[in-house]
Amino acid sequence: MNSKNLLLIFTRNPELGKVKTRLAKSVGDKTALDIYHFLLHKTKEATKNISCDKTVYYSKKIIKDDLWNRSNYHKKEQFGNDLGEKMKNAIDDGFKKKYKKIILIGSDLFDLKPSHINDAFKKLDHNDVVIGPATDGGYYLIGLKKLHLKIFENKNWGSSTVREDTLKNLEKVDVHLLSMLNDVDVIEDIENHSAFTKFLKPR
User: Fold this and answer.
1) 81 Cβ contact partners less than 8 Å away, ≥ 6 residues apart
2) Cα distances (angstroms) measured from residue 182 to each of 148, 170, 196, 198
3) Largest distance between two CA atoms of the chain
4) 3-state secondary structure of 137
5) pLDDT of 66-88, one tens digit each?
6) CA dist 181 → 35, 85, 135, 141, 172 (Å)
7) Of 111, 106, 15, 2, nearest to 63 (Cα)?
8) Is residue 121 within 8 Å of 158, Cβ to Cβ?
9) What does the alpha-carbon distance between residue 135 and residue 160 come to, in Å, rounded to a whole number?
10) Domain residues of the chain, as ranges?
11) DSSP letters of 52-97?
């Protein structure tokens, strides 16, 4: 692949008891891990045919043989003291490699479609920043044409104020908001979603 656009996919290493911990309080560690594997595969389906370079960033260590095929995805390890620093470092690395547009997404969205990512790249033609808002007050996607350091600093990551605080940092630039999506963090995010019925026992 040789593109001016780069898609970064942040993942957590799928280990029992280490993923979807808030969800696990309701469904147990094993089911939470099964759901996370399900979401990883869904993320791969949403990204595999996007026409750009792609890099998967693992939370702990790179897994050589997993669902992310090396012919389609580069692999790197996240580094930094918190999520903001990890995202900043990954995006900064991309710009140092001369990419013109960089989009970063997570891996816990069942409803993410290729159209969301393609639209984000297109919107960067006429906007400085693109954000995909999540229903929990955060964001599931951020797209940039240059590094805006402030948006990765002094945030209470995982809180309901992340998107609001980020937009305050971006008041002087053009920001496009994509459609709002629901990421999967707690039981309420999936209990009425037919795609997750197979994981949930009758309550």
Assistant:
1) none
2) 25, 23, 14, 19
3) 52
4) coil
5) 999 999 999 999 999 999 999 99
6) 18, 24, 6, 10, 25
7) 15
8) no
9) 9
10) 5-199
11) SEEEEEESS---SSSSS-TTT-EEEE--SSSHHHHHHHHHHHHHHT
DSSP 3-state of 151? helix
Indicate the average pLDDT of the chain: 94
CA-CA distance, 155 to 164, in Å (whole number)?
Answer: 10
Length of the chain: 203
If you search the block for the tokens 């690395």, which residue do you land on?
93
pLDDT tens digits, 95-138: 999 999 999 999 999 999 999 999 999 999 999 999 999 999 99
Q: Which strands make up the sheet holding 101-105, listed edge to edge?
A: 74-77, 53-58, 5-10, 101-105, 139-144, 129-133, 175-177
Q: Which CATH number fits domain 5-199: 3.90.320.10, 3.90.550.10, 3.90.1150.10, 3.30.160.20?
A: 3.90.550.10
Kindly state the tokens that stand for 116.
């969301």
